[in-house]
């Protein structure tokens, strides 16, 4: 009886470790891949439309400084952007929707 419980415990522990290892490895690999393959337009679509539609962005004709302030404000409200993504997005917004 004791041997069965030990075998069952080992099997459950092995499954938990396997599932944990698989899930953590795949999500970090996916994140790195999607982050490196994004361009400014994709960042705008993926990150900004979570809270509002693009017509709001398209109507706003801002200077690069104004876009930087806007992006910083959105990050303060919870937008998820790395430093590199932030720079790329501001450059894209300034070029595409600049004043």
Key attributes of the depicted protein:
2 domains, mainly alpha, 5 helices, rod-shaped, 0% strand, 78% helix, 99 residues, Cytochrome Bc1 Complex, Chain D, domain 2
Characterization of this structure:
The structure is a single chain. The protein is an all-alpha fold. It has two domains: 1-37; 39-99, Orthogonal Bundle (Cytochrome Bc1 Complex, Chain D, domain 2). Helix content is 78%, strand content 0%. The chain is built from five helices and no strands. It is rod-shaped, with a radius of gyration of 22 Å.
Brief characterization of the structure:
The protein has 99 residues and is mainly alpha-helical. The chain has five helices and no strands.
Total domain modules: 2
Tell me the number of strands: 0
Portion of residues in beta strands equals under 5%
**Shape from CA axes?**
rod-shaped
Number of helices: 5
**CATH homologous superfamily of the largest domain, by name?**
Cytochrome c-like domain
Secondary structure topology:
Layout: H1 2-36, H2 40-48, H3 54-59, H4 64-76, H5 83-96
Helix pairs in contact: 2-5, 4-5
């Amino acid at each position: 009886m004791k041997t069965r419980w030990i075998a069952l415990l080992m099997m459950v522990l092995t499954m938990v470790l396997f599932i944990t290892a698989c899930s953590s490895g795949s999500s970090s690999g996916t994140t790195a891949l999607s982050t490196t393959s994004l361009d400014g337009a994709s960042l705008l679509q993926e990150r900004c439309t979570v809270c509002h539609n693009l017509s709001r962005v398209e109507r706003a004709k801002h200077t690069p400084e104004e876009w930087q302030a806007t992006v910083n404000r959105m990050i303060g409200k919870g937008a998820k952007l790395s430093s590199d993504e932030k720079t790329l997005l501001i450059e894209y917004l300034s070029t595409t929707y600049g004043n």
